[in-house]
Amino acid sequence: MEASLGIHMDEPMSFSPLRDRLQADGSLKKYEQTIKLPGVKKDIEKLYEAVPQLGNLFKIKDKIGEGTFSSVYLATAQLKVGPEEKIALKHLIPTSHPIRIAAELQCLTVAGGQDNVMGVKYCFRKNDHVVIAMPYLEHESFLDILNSLSFQEVREYMFNLFKALKRIHQFGIVHRDVKPSNFLYNRHLKKYALVDFGLAQGTHDTKIELLKFVQSETQQASCSQNKSHLVMGNKISTSGPTPKELDQQCTTKTSVKRPYTNAQIQIKQGKDGKEGSVGLSVQRSVFGERNFNIHSSISHESPAVKINFNITYSYLFIVRRQQVAPRAGTPGFRAPEVLTKCPNQTTAIDMWSAGVIFLSLLSGRYPFYKASDDLTALAQIMIIRGSRETIQAAKTFGKSILCSKEVPAQDLRKLCERLRGIDPNTPKLNTQGPASQDPAFSEKTDCKASNFVQTSQVQHSGNSLYKGDSNSCEDHFDEFTTNLEGWDEVPDEAYDLLDKLLDLNPASRITAEEALLHPFFKDMSL
Ligand code: ADP
Ligand code: MG
């Protein structure tokens, strides 16, 4: 294998069918032993068939991730000299838009490879199949380790996340999907990597050329403007999609595509208050994301904030003409300005998401917010940060929210300690795990009284009361030993930083650069 970076496009067909090849070198049995699921085995074979040049370079061992827009495989590459190298192969769904794919690749090549941002080694394309080859980072499942992390590990985790965010924000990349499954963490090696630029967008002055196209206002504009002049950074160059390919992509209406224009991700409010088919067709699957990583385990995830929608009435209105604004990502991690469709979104939205991760780490609850739509997510934010405060902040970015019931802001320390199971009088952890009936969200704070109505261009107020997460999972108790280290004396700086990350106003929210200099990280160096 070449040691240098390179893009391999439409390589000559020097591939013999996988089975024959493996039989020939006697490794078929060994190969089959490494494949656990017949479905995975089939997928691997299909991938070899779709992108034959992979067979010359890699042994694909397993599927380690599957989302709506990609499948990720673990492979090994045998270099002429030296040990076998582990590689992650991200196979993007063939219906992904070429510009979207190229932009994801450009983020990795230009900003990646340092400061905890995943880099790229190769990229392969055969027809409409694209595979990005990256260094493999074995990582933990966030949920599995959440309650076994020492306080110092949490500090290091957040510090390294900010390092990655500072790096991408310097390039004018807004990641838009910051969450634990996109920030790989190898606890043993203390290695971290921000991955998945599949939803990234550029700031107005982005240094990632292709993100300028991704940001364009309408799908039509994108289709007509982006001929084939794609500029790739960092020594990697590739031919862009042909106008024909672009046309095909732009006119295909039935397939699931990653959003690449603002127009595509406009919310359509359906009669039942959920997003209509247009919105859904471009939405990333929020709860369907599977992680096949060896360290991961399937468990019942319990959101820290649960809302029962069937009790009393409290109305929340966002009084504004429906605006076109990007709102991709995962509801529980979306900033208030994303949830209210503020059109001017900045890198601050990633800082909010980092705040939600920090909230999980401090409270021992993941996911912290579990919302299947934006209004539920906004209501959950209000329960933690206060309704008045949310309304006031929304005004600063031009959004009017009406809420019939006032919900006070919570004290973040008290909230996290209660959820973590720390009795404030006796500073000792409850090793049974977080309390299932948490008083922070009982009648007292009226979190049950949350039925929401959005008024916008599409008026369905009579029918759009959200029916809620009635099938939300049972409480999850971590099987791992709860780590007491450092948790009995969490410094005020931790909650001060959390408060600054969860600043409802994006204009004053702390930046990644500022966060790294926060007193919470006083003895840590970049
Ligand atoms: P998607 O767009 O489908 O979410 P991601 O890029 O987030 O794709 O990858 C999905 C999952 O695959 C990740 O959550 C992670 O578990 C795994 N993964 C992705 N890249 C790597 C990598 N370089 N090393 C190890 N695992 C990876
Ligand atoms: Mg992902």
From TrEMBL:
<protein>
    <recommendedName>
        <fullName>Cell division cycle 7-related protein kinase</fullName>
        <ecNumber>2.7.11.1</ecNumber>
    </recommendedName>
</protein>
<comment type="function">
    <text>Kinase involved in initiation of DNA replication. Phosphorylates critical substrates that regulate the G1/S phase transition and initiation of DNA replication, such as MCM proteins and CLASPIN.</text>
</comment>
<keyword id="KW-0460">Magnesium</keyword>
<feature type="binding site">
    <location>
        <position position="90"/>
    </location>
    <ligand>
        <name>ATP</name>
    </ligand>
</feature>
<keyword id="KW-0067">ATP-binding</keyword>
<dbReference type="InterPro" id="IPR008271">
    <property type="entry name" value="Ser/Thr_kinase_AS"/>
</dbReference>
<dbReference type="InterPro" id="IPR011009">
    <property type="entry name" value="Kinase-like_dom_sf"/>
</dbReference>
<dbReference type="GO" id="GO:0051301">
    <property type="term" value="P:cell division"/>
</dbReference>
<dbReference type="GO" id="GO:0046872">
    <property type="term" value="F:metal ion binding"/>
</dbReference>
<feature type="region of interest" description="Disordered">
    <location>
        <begin position="423"/>
        <end position="442"/>
    </location>
</feature>
<keyword id="KW-0597">Phosphoprotein</keyword>
<keyword id="KW-0418">Kinase</keyword>
<keyword id="KW-0539">Nucleus</keyword>
<keyword id="KW-0479">Metal-binding</keyword>
<comment type="subunit">
    <text>Forms a complex with either DBF4/DBF4A or DBF4B, leading to the activation of the kinase activity. Interacts with CLASPIN (via the acidic patch); the interaction is required for phosphorylation of MCM proteins and CLASPIN.</text>
</comment>
<dbReference type="InterPro" id="IPR017441">
    <property type="entry name" value="Protein_kinase_ATP_BS"/>
</dbReference>
<keyword id="KW-0547">Nucleotide-binding</keyword>
<keyword id="KW-0132">Cell division</keyword>
<keyword id="KW-0808">Transferase</keyword>
<dbReference type="GO" id="GO:0044773">
    <property type="term" value="P:mitotic DNA damage checkpoint signaling"/>
</dbReference>
<feature type="domain" description="Protein kinase">
    <location>
        <begin position="58"/>
        <end position="521"/>
    </location>
</feature>
<keyword id="KW-0832">Ubl conjugation</keyword>
<keyword id="KW-0723">Serine/threonine-protein kinase</keyword>
<keyword id="KW-0131">Cell cycle</keyword>
<dbReference type="GO" id="GO:0004674">
    <property type="term" value="F:protein serine/threonine kinase activity"/>
</dbReference>
<dbReference type="GO" id="GO:0005524">
    <property type="term" value="F:ATP binding"/>
</dbReference>
<dbReference type="InterPro" id="IPR000719">
    <property type="entry name" value="Prot_kinase_dom"/>
</dbReference>
<dbReference type="Pfam" id="PF00069">
    <property type="entry name" value="Pkinase"/>
</dbReference>
<keyword id="KW-1017">Isopeptide bond</keyword>
<dbReference type="GO" id="GO:0005634">
    <property type="term" value="C:nucleus"/>
</dbReference>
